[in-house]
Amino acid sequence: MHHRITLPALPQRIVSLVPSQTELLFDLGLADRVVGITKFCIHPEATVKEKAIIGGTKNFHFDQINALQPDLIIGNKEENYKEGIEALQQKHPVWMSDIYTLEDALQMIQQIGQLTGTAAKATELALNISAGFGGLKPMQPPVSTAYFIWRKPYMAVGNQNIIDYMLQRCGFRNAFSGLNRYPEIIPELLHEANPRLILLSSEPYPFQEKHIEEFRAHCPDAVIQVVDGEMFSWYGSRLLHAPGYLQQVIGEVERLIASKA
C-alpha cells in the first residue's frame, strides 16, 4: 500500500480494526496494551468485553478512536475501508496487512511481533502454524466446491482471498474461482457449475443446518455441509487450530462422497 509508519517506541495504546488480528494481539500477550477494538472482535471472549468499541470494520467512530489516543492502529486492506483508513492516517500511525495466502498470514504475525516487541512469541506461533498446515492431507482427487458466505442474495467465494486459498489447501477446487472475489450467484449459475460439494459458512451470514435443504433443491446430488467460517477465514492466531478442524471437514466430506458413490 506504499505507506510507511515510524514508531518512536513500542506502542502502548493499540487499536485493532480486524477481529482475527485482535485475537492475535491477545495471544501475543498484549491484552493490557489493546485499548480499542471493533464490535466484531469477539475473541478471546472473556477479555475483549473489557475493551472500548470503536464501531465496525467498515464504519469507524473517529471521535472514539481519537479519544483513545492510540499510538498504533492495526487494520487490513480487505476488511477495512479506504476512506476511513486514510482519515485515520492523518492523525495516527496505521499499520495495514494484506492477506491472500497462509504465507501472507505468517508474515503478518511476525511483523506484528516486531512492531509490538513480541517477536519471539510471534515467531514461535508462526512456526507452529506452519507445522500444522504441513501435516494437512487434502482431498485426492480435488472435489469441485462452492463456498457460500451470504444469502439473499447468494454470494460465494471467488478468487484472490484467504478462503479460496484454504479451499485449495483442503483439496476443494473452487467452482467459482474464475469470477471476482465474492461473486453474487444466481440459481442458474449454481446449476451450471454443478459443484460436488457445497460449504455453507457460519459467517458473515450465519448459515445453519436448516439452510441445507434450500441448497439441496438447487443441487440435489451435492454433498452440503455447514462449516465454521472462522477456521477458513481468520488469519491470525486462530490458524493454530485450523488444520485439525479442516482435516475433520475433509474426512467428513470424503465419507459422505463415498456413501453417495
Observed structural traits:
Rossmann fold; 5-stranded mixed beta sheet; 261 residues; 2 domains; alpha/beta; 16% strand
Strand adjacency order, main sheet: 3-2-1-4-5
Classification by helices and strands: alpha/beta
Number of domains as seen in the coordinates: 2
Output the radius of gyration. Answer: 19 Å
How much helical structure, as a percent, in the residues? Answer: 25-40%
CATH topology (fold) name of the largest domain: Rossmann fold
> In CATH, what is the homologous superfamily of the largest domain?
Nitrogenase molybdenum iron protein domain
| Head-to-tail CA distance between termini | 48 Å
Quaternary state reads single chain
The major pleated sheet works out as: 5 strands, parallel
Number of DSSP strands? 10
The number of helices is: 11
User: How confident is the prediction overall: mean pLDDT?
Assistant: 96
Helix-strand pattern, N to C?
EHEHEHEHEHHEEHEHEHEHH
Summed up:
The protein is an alpha/beta fold and 261 residues long. The protein contains eleven helices and ten strands.
Structure description:
- This protein starts with 13 loop residues before the first strand and ends with a helix.
- It is built from 11 helices and 10 strands.
- Helix 5 packs antiparallel against helix 6 (119-134).
- The chain is an alpha/beta fold and 261 residues long.
- Strand 1, helix 1 and strand 2 (34-37) form a beta-alpha-beta unit.
- The protein is globular.
- It has 2 domains: 14-133, Rossmann fold; 143-260, Nitrogenase molybdenum iron protein domain (Rossmann fold), CATH 3.40.50.1980.
- The chain has a 5-stranded parallel β-sheet with strand order 3-2-1-4-5, with helices on both faces. Strands 6, 7, 8, 9 and 10 form a 5-stranded mixed β-sheet that branches.
- It has helices at 19-27, 45-48, 62-68, 82-89, 102-116, 119-134, 162-170, 187-193, 212-216, 229-233, 242-260; strands at residues 14-16, 34-37, 52-53, 72-76, 94-97, 143-150, 155-156, 172-174, 197-201, 223-227.
